[in-house]
Amino acid sequence: MSSTLRGLWFMISGMVTTDAPAANELTAAQRAPARSTDRDQVLRNALSIALATALYAVSFGVLSVAAGFSVAQTCVMSVVTFTGASQFTFVSVIGSGAGPVAALAPALLLAARNSLYGISLRSVLTGSVAKRALLAQGVIDETTAMAHAQPEPAAKRRAFELTAVLLFFGWNVGTLAGALAGQGLGNPKDLGLDAMFPAVFVALLAPQLRNADARRAALAGGLVALALVSFVPAGLPIIAAGLVAVPFLVAANRCGDGGLGSGT
Fold first, then answer.
1. What secondary structure, in 3-state letters, does 136-164 show?
2. Same structural domain for residues 125 and 170?
3. Are residues 55 and 121 in the same domain?
4. Where are the beta strands (DSSP E) in the chain?
């Protein structure tokens, strides 16, 4: 009886051992299509974002030429800077009549968020110093979001790099197209295109006003800018407004656990 039980045990053990690799192979086979689907989805998302970015870049090219930049200057700015919000801000301030120093301050302030993105992407920005420097050029809102949406480090790196390459290409092609188109528009004031400059500021500001603390800071800065705009050089009201807003934002960050996000 005991020998029979032992025989049955070895037979069952042999079946389990034999079937185990098959089960592992089935699991691996099931994973492959899932990973392929994920990669296809990342590619589709990156292409969609790149297309939207290219269309957005056309408007930047038009705006930059209308502000007085040449086609070459506009294209170099997109290649070197590659951060849309800062570029729009810079050319908008220049277009309003301010100097480069006044335009640079808000542009750098907007670009500062990319430094925080870089810290969150330390597992993606790997390799030699030269490689990390090259990858850092692609640290923007969209690439950061695409990377963090992936579950594994390898997938994060692929999503980041793919999105960065496609967006860089789309942004610069769109910039060139817009700059060339902007050359044939003549005086932008004759067509009412000078209204684009304040409109861009409103578009950049609106998403930041979703909570009470940000609205209070914006109101304080706006009142100061309004008080100064009639008798100080162009661009200085913007800098003054930013300086006035800082204490409100710092106080809000100290009061709540979530800082600005704690408002309603």
1. HCCCCHHHHHHHHCCCCHHHHHHHHHHHH
2. yes
3. yes
4. none
Count: domains in the chain: 3
**Shared-domain flag, residues 125 and 195:** yes
Short-list 113, 116, 122, CA closest to 160:
122
Q: Using one digit for the tens of pLDDT, what is the confidence trace for 57-81?
A: 888 999 899 888 999 999 999 999 9
Parent domain of 25: 1-32
Count other Cβ atoms within 10 Å, centred on residue 213: 21
155-168 tens-digit pLDDT: 999 999 999 999 99
Same domain for 228 and 104: no
pLDDT confidence bin for 207, thresholds 50/70/90: low
Query: Two tokens at 189?
Result: 């004031």
Residue 5: both structure tokens together: 């039980």
Q: Output DSSP code: residue 262.
A: G
Per-residue pLDDT at 86 exceeds 80: yes
> What three-state secondary structure class fits 54?
helix
How many Å apart are CA 188 and CA 88, to the nearest integer? Answer: 16
Residue where the block lists tokens 């709540």: 256
Q: Where are the alpha helices (DSSP H) in 67-140?
A: 71-80, 84-95, 100-111, 113-120, 129-136
